[in-house]
Every structure is written in structure tokens, then in C-alpha cells.
Design a protein that fits this description.
The protein is of the alpha+beta class. It has three helices and five strands, in the order H-H-E-E-E-E-E-H. The N and C termini lie far apart (about 30 Å).
Length: about 120
């Protein structure tokens, strides 16, 4: 289930080489891999979706997680899944070019990290 960020990057690199639609999520994953966050968050993929959690977890995992999904037109959806009721889940759609910036802001908003972490 949990995979290292290099392997996740390889998955999205293959997808983006076949279809430019996946370029935004690939760039996001590369930014995560190359950041200070990479040793403190965990991820896995499911088909084309990326899941990120705060702690290393085992399958099956039913706890809170962040879903990042590539949409059409260079958009990324961020959906924080902490309930099965979809209408109660926090979600936003962002331009893919600022995906990593929005992800960092979400980390701070969720208190997964504090702003002095990146200094």
C-alpha cells in the first residue's frame, strides 16, 4: 500500500508520457519527492489517484486521507476524506500549475505541519 515517492513519481511519469493530462499531478509528486515533506508524509496510488496520509498505515486503511486527482484542463482536485458522506468531505479544485503551493497550504491548514517546518 504505502510506496516510496520515487516509485510514485515513476508511475506518474509513465502516465504523463502517454497522456499530457497527467502532467500536473506528475509535477506535484516530483515537488513532494524533492521537498522536506517527503520523509514525513506517506502516499500510494490507486489507478490514477494519489492518496496522502500523515502516518505510515497498513492495508486495509479506513482512516482520514487526502485524495489528489488529476482533472481535465490542467486542474487538480484535493479531497480530504475523513467521512464516508461525500457532501461533508472538504474538496477544492485548483489550477495544476500551483498544485504544490496549494498542497503546502493545506498541510498547514490541517496542522500536519507548521510554517516553521520549511525554514
Amino acid at each position: 500500500m504505502i510506496r516510496n515517492w520515487d516509485d510514485i513519481c515513476s508511475d506518474y511519469e509513465r502516465l504523463s508520457s502517454k497522456d499530457n493530462k497527467f502532467l500536473s499531478i506528475y509535477n506535484l509528486v516530483v515537488s513532494v519527492r524533492d521537498s522536506n515533506f517527503s520523509n514525513h508524509i506517506y502516499g500510494w496510488t490507486s489507478v490514477c489517484d494519489l492518496y496522502i496520509v500523515q502516518n505510515e498505515v497498513n492495508y486495509p486503511y479506513e482512516g482520514p486521507k487526502l485524495l489528489v486527482r488529476q482533472l481535465e484542463c490542467n486542474k487538480l482536485e484535493f479531497r480530504y476524506i475523513d467521512t464516508y458522506e461525500a457532501e461533508r468531505q472538504w474538496n477544492r479544485v485548483f489550477d495544476g500549475s500551483d498544485g504544490f503551493g496549494k498542497l503546502k497550504k493545506l498541510f498547514f491548514d490541517l496542522h500536519w505541519f507548521y510554517p516553521n517546518f520549511i525554514k
